[in-house]
Every structure is written in structure tokens, then in C-alpha cells.
Amino acid sequence: MMKKFFAALAFVPVLLAPAVTWAQGAQSGNAAQFTFEAIDGGAMPLSQFAGKVLLVVNTASFCGYTRQYEGLQKLFERYASKGLVVIGVPSNDFGEQEPKAEREIASFCQGAFGVTFPLTAKQVVKGQGAHPFYAWAKTVLGEAAAPRWNFHKYLIGADGRLAAAFATQTEPLDPKLVRAVEGELAKSGR
Fold first, then answer.
1. Which residue ranges of the chain lie beneath pLDDT 70?
2. How far apart are alpha carbons 91 and 24 in whole angstroms?
3. Domains of the chain, first to last
4. Model-level pTM greater than 0.90?
5. Is 109 tagged catalytic?
6. 126: Cβ contacts below 8 Å, ≥ 6 apart
7. Which of 63, 155, 164, 180 is catalytic?
């Protein structure tokens, strides 16, 4: 039953209202208004990635999907020069599969998978205590596009709008996800 449910959520495309610029983010409610804490400390405002396409992924080190780090890194390497930024958001929300401290998480990701894309400090991504980015994404895209497990992916266009959500089962190099990334990069002129 759950397998069928997750399969149905494998790809949730989203068409939203007219695009806005990153500079208008705080007024219009796009991704630019949100700030995470970086895994090594300090603020990581999404506005620092103005004009870039973002793939924001809630991650966990002890999950059956942890191997997706490898695909995320490959996707990042393939498209970084064209304007893609992958952002890993470690979370212990699903099955308590991210119990370690930030330093250990970073060391694991870099050592086991060669991760070079930005990682945030651990965050809550579901429920009442969810990071404001995740609460906003759920409001914009609806309950069906909210994370149900680790490695849920949100694609944000270069204009800061939420373009699509991809469920856990969608691999980072899945043709649907790659086409969506390429489409957003093309819209940005990259």
C-alpha cells in the first residue's frame, strides 16, 4: 500500500503564479526570503544564490536512500557551471536516520560521497516545527508535495519560485528530474 502511495508521488510538477525576481522575494514570498544555518555555522540565506536554480533536498546519513548523495553530487557537478546549486538539508525527522552532529554529518558526506555542494545544519522539515522554507513549500505546493521521507527534492527556478517537487523515490539523475533542471536552467538563460 505504501509503495503504491510513494510511487504515485514520484513526480509532482507544479505550475505557479507569474515569476518574480529574487530581489522581490521578501515581498512576494519566494525562496529568497529564507535563511538556513550552514552546516559549519553561519547564515546561509537563499538570496545568496540569486539567479541560480536550486535543488533543495532533505537528507539523512542512515537511510536506505543515502546513496542518492552520489547522484546529487553528480548532478551538481554536471550543472554547477550552468547555474545549478544543490543544497542538502540534513534532517532527523524520518526514522531518526540523521542522529549525528553537524561535524560528523559533513565528514560522512564528504568522505563517503565526495559531497561539495552546500549543506545546512540539521533542520526539522515536517510538522509544526518545520523550518520556514518547508512550511512555505507545503503552503505553496500543497500537502501532496510535502516531504514524506528523506531525500525529497524541491526544484526552485532562478527567479526564486517553486517549480516542482520530486518524491524520495525519484533518483537525482532520473530523466524527469534532469529535464526539469535543464528546463529551469534554460529559462534562466544558462
1. 1-29
2. 29
3. 8-187 (3.40.30.10)
4. no
5. no
6. 93, 94, 134, 146, 147
7. 63
